[in-house]
UniProtKB/TrEMBL annotation:
SUPFAM superfamilies: PUA domain-like
Organism: Gonium pectorale (Green alga)
Protein name: ASCH domain-containing protein
InterPro entries on file: PUA-like_sf (IPR015947)
Highest rank taxon of the organism: Eukaryota
Taxonomic lineage from the root: Eukaryota, Viridiplantae, Chlorophyta, core chlorophytes, Chlorophyceae
Length: 137
């Protein structure tokens, strides 16, 4: 979702919530993530509509913290609504945002939720992290 990617890139969204399966079940602080969106942001209105919509650049992040929860509600209450979903109107709305992601409603109860604190890497720090990952292979 381009909106949440932009919020991560800007530093406003500092916690990424996911179902606790696969790589998300094994995340530890210090892990690197590249967040990207396959969706295009909505096109501008008015005269700017003639120009193609901008693409949202990926965000390279490092995990700063990892906490496990039994539900999205517990995660939003424990991590803070604005850290997880900046601009969201309330916890109930936030729970529905997460449950609206395909498969999340069904898997929340069985697999649980992980909240990963994220910090965006930029400039030399990002280049150094990418080089380190490439050396390890």
């Amino acid at each position: 979702m381009p909106r949440y990617l932009e919020l991560i890139r800007s530093g406003a969204k500092t916690v990424e919530g996911r179902i606790r399966v696969g790589k998300w079940a094994d995340v530890v602080p210090g892990d690197l993530f590249r967040f990207f969106s396959n969706e295009q942001p909505p096109p501008p209105a008015g005269p700017a509509a003639a120009n193609p919509p901008p693409t949202v650049e990926p965000a390279l992040c490092v995990a700063t913290s990892v906490r496990q929860y039994d539900s999205f509600r517990a995660m939003l209450e424990g991590e803070g609504l604005q850290a997880c979903l900046p601009g969201c109107g309330g916890v109930e709305e936030g729970v529905e945002v997460y449950r609206g992601i395909p498969g999340y409603r069904e898997r929340e109860g069985s697999d649980g939720v992980v909240a990963v604190g994220v910090r965006v890497l930029a400039g030399e720090e990002a280049r150094g992290a990418l080089e380190a990952v490439q050396r390890v292979g």
